[in-house]
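User: Predict the complex.
Assistant: Input components as received:
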Amino acid sequence: MINNKYDVVVIGSGVVGSSIAYHLSESKKNNILVVDKGFPMSGTSGSTQAWVWVHSKTPSWYGELSMYSAELYPFLERKIGDVEYKRTGGIAPFFNEADREGALRLAEKQAEVGIEVDVLNREEVLEKEPALSQRVAGATFCKLDGNVNPFRLVELYTKAAKKNGAVFSFYNQVVTITKKKDIFQIETDQDTFYSKKVILAGGPWSKDLGKMLGVDIPIKQVRGQILVTEPQSPFLKHTIGGIRQADNGEVLIGYSKEEVGYDKRSTLDIMQETAKMATEFIPSLAKANVVRCFSGIRVMPKDGFPIIGEVPEVRNAYIAAMHSGITLSPLVGTLMTELLEDGETSIDLTRFSMNRFDQMYSRISE
Amino acid sequence: METDLVIVGGGPAGLSAAITATSYGADVILIEESFSLGGQLRQQTQLHANLPSKFFAERGTSLVKRLTSQLETPNLKILRNHTMIGAYKNGHIGVTNGKTTFEIEAKKNIIASGAAENAWIFPGWTLPGVMTAGAAQILLNREFVYPGKQVMMIGSNSFALEVVKQLYECGISVQAIVEASETILSRDQALLSMCKKNNIPFFLNSTIESVSGSGHVEKMTIRTSEGMMEELEVDLICTANGFSPILEAFQIMSCDLTHSEVLGGWLPTYSVNFQTSNPSVYLAGNAAGITSLGSILLTGEIAALSALESLQFISERDSNRKKAALWEELYQIETFFNKDTMLARLELVKHYHSERGLPLPDFVDPLKGEMLFG
Ligand SMILES: Cc1cc2nc3c(=O)[nH]c(=O)nc-3n(C[C@H](O)[C@H](O)[C@H](O)COP(=O)(O)OP(=O)(O)OC[C@H]3O[C@@H](n4cnc5c(N)ncnc54)[C@H](O)[C@@H]3O)c2cc1C
Ligand SMILES: Cc1cc2nc3c(=O)[nH]c(=O)nc-3n(C[C@H](O)[C@H](O)[C@H](O)COP(=O)(O)OP(=O)(O)OC[C@H]3O[C@@H](n4cnc5c(N)ncnc54)[C@H](O)[C@@H]3O)c2cc1C
């Protein structure tokens, strides 16, 4: 039954919100409600490539964050069940010998934080992944990279959180948030909730949620379009820059970035460009039929890096908004739980605080 | 590829629109996914009456020939085996033949994608031998293949009875017609007396419980009005659960949708000109609400005239005069059996206009009194 008083209300039930709810529910110390305006997976987490990707994340402190999160996946699976996590190894091919220097620099930088990146020559890449184009010049490779089934991931986060007593309410849009004394009053389409703490996990809509607290959250919406082929017999062993083969044989392909707001349409311009690029990478894909396309809206903080932590000047309000939320969700859930329960975190979050946007950040005057 | 007008769908609605549009000199490209024109009319061997005045009662299959014979004009380009699969950022449609995908720069688009049969789901519904009534009709009349020897029809609308008739006439034994409600849905006297004359039993108040068989339909169980289970041996089960507009092309073009049970479920919103919420997209045929062949042909003509008017191939005055006559005829034909479809259509159109503060043009005035406010 839906109560109306909670210790923590999480707004948004995508991969970020559901992971936070799950990790926070583990100790069973808090009454937790998760509200979402749509159905499960209706946000960005339902339209993503879902790589768990580490190796080309720069600067290296960002790579390090991704590495810690990727390392949590095997443990996560033991707790919440099979999310089809596969540590396939990741290959980012390059087609120009001139790119080798950049690749070597990347490997060197990532090594400083303990991420092993190999720079492969043409023969080595083709041996690892024979389906790649003969034109390939080389690649960077990292064995920590992989991918996951985002649908199972969010579903199992949700299930496990429910098992621990968290309550979920879908089709219930948050309209206003007001703080009276130390209590947040959260008005939705259908209910009024009261909570000691509130966590904004609204993905691409985070800006709207911020406004409700009088705060400007510096994120942009960046559309990505993905092509899905009919199932192919398993032929890709690795997660490849822009391309991965899912367990059911479908190949997901996507590279695009467009700033078009919340517009989730697919356009043929991008689809054709994407298909062309895919066949340049993997010539045999030219024979595959594309059966579906979809778009997702990336949650892109202005500087590209995650926003995790307390909302400045609004005590007990927290935010988690980021690109690569699939990769980062196990770690973000863990860190948020530490922050709420202990007030301190095992990884310093200063870098991820909204305060870094100081120049950009402006309090909306009432 | 450039053109004045692109028409997506070469069924009766698209053909009617193409004939109208080319006759005014517009350059038209007709896109049809199949290798041949005619859409779902291609397997309709039955006689269609209640058609617009310029037609006479005729079999669907021969009407296809009549319509396509009017298409031999240099300002029409027909792309068979081409499917509209998307739109470009600039709003133009994109089509593919499976090998190449390209843009068609049309000033206006008419989408006449037709309707699909609604599935009927029960335990065993995926066994070979379970198919829609339309699928059986295609096998029989288009492919010349017997879909089975002993058939059970689920559903009793006119389409179900029409297919029963066609199966029966080809020597397939009709075990029964199963209907969940307490009366036969069809009001078509000719079809009803055909069933009576041939002693085809109806199970009213009855539902399908399950279908079984090893690799193919062999038995079905129905729950009858008394709650009894009845087991019958059949090798073909046809389901007739109504039609719904095919919407992908409209969704690609970002047309607003609305819901109307009577018109077949979700469908695009449109104006009295059969213009959708996307000003470059018009629609026609069963995509604009499930109806009968006469109406389908007329909606194609109205959509084409509206598009021609906005492209200035016809003056507003002439176009309105023609559209007034076509709406009048549409009214006559569509209300011939009952008024529900026309009422729902007018409701939808009225809503489109009132939402945008657009007055209903004079040419629907004759209908306004009786239909909208009567
Ligand atoms: C094309 C594409 C490819 C990507 N590939 C990868 C990848 O390979 N690896 C990777 O790690 N990441 C990838 N990402 C990024 C990743 O998908 C996102 O970072 C992640 O899904 C964000 O999750 P989220 O929970 O923050 O957002 P969402 O999943 O959007 O969840 C936010 C939720 O908040 C709800 N909400 C919003 N406002 C309200 C309100 N007012 N009231 C109630 N509920 C509200 C929404 O309904 C939504 O369900 C990709 C993204 C895209 C678009
Ligand atoms: C199997 C079946 C049997 C039927 N039998 C009867 C019957 O016996 N009596 C009756 O009254 N009604 C019947 N109907 C209903 C049918 O919708 C109408 O009879 C009539 O054919 C509708 O005309 P239309 O032009 O609107 O659409 P259709 O005749 O369906 O024509 C639409 C055409 O558009 C094409 N098309 C669709 N999308 C695209 C695209 N994206 N790109 C390119 N081409 C596209 C299709 O290939 C098709 O040829 C049947 C329907 C079905 C599906």
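Chain B touches chain A at residues 85-89, 94, 101, 103, 254 (CB under 8 Å).
Let me know if you want any component modeled separately.
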